[in-house]
Amino acid sequence: MNYYILRRMAASSTRDRIFNVFSQQIEKFCVDIRKILPSDDVEADLILTGLRTMLHLNPDMIARFIYDNISLPYESMLLKKDERFLTGELSSKMGGGPFADLHYKIESRWSTMTETNKNIIWDYFKIIVMLTKKLYSE
């Protein structure tokens, strides 16, 4: 094999590993956010099931959506834990779907969440932003 093919294989392998970590983090986020939101919130179950289904069907679509619509425009706000990120502006820009619905759920419960739960969410936002940057910014 020539050097070019080996480099492409290594890059592909790295990208696959990043996608695996990305998918695992989204799955863990869904589990943890479900614990944070009220247990009787049936709508949250539907939103998270939709997100998981989309993730299993097309993780690239999910990662690209997050990169284009969250990571690029809001990275600095997320990394600074700027709560303005949780205002209605982002929901309206997402145009519906599980991301907008989940954002609304988090936004509507934010004022009553513990600092520990808020930090859990911020940590996931940071990790997900960094992973999508690794996937698409190079």
Explain the overall architecture.
The protein is mainly α and 138 residues long. 82% of the residues lie in helices and 0% in strands. The protein contains six helices and no strands. The chain has helices spanning 3-36, 42-57, 59-79, 88-94, 97-109, 115-136. Helix 1 (3-36) packs antiparallel against helix 2 (42-57), helix 2 (42-57) crosses helix 3 (59-79) and helix 2 (42-57) runs antiparallel to helix 5. The chain starts with a helix and ends with a helix.
Task: Describe what is shown at a glance.
Helix content is 82%, strand content 0%. With 138 residues, it is an all-alpha fold.
Radius of gyration from CA coordinates: 16 Å
The biggest beta sheet reads: none
SS class: mainly alpha
Instruction: Summarize the helix and strand pattern as letters.
Output: HHHHHH
Q: How much of the residues is beta strand, in percent?
A: under 5%
Residue-averaged pLDDT: 85
Number of helices: 6
What shape does the CA trace take?
globular
Number of strands: 0
List the helices and strands and how they pair.
Blueprint: H1 3-36, H2 42-57, H3 59-79, H4 88-94, H5 97-109, H6 115-136
Name the features:
single chain, about 140 residues, mainly alpha, 6 helices, about 80% helix, globular
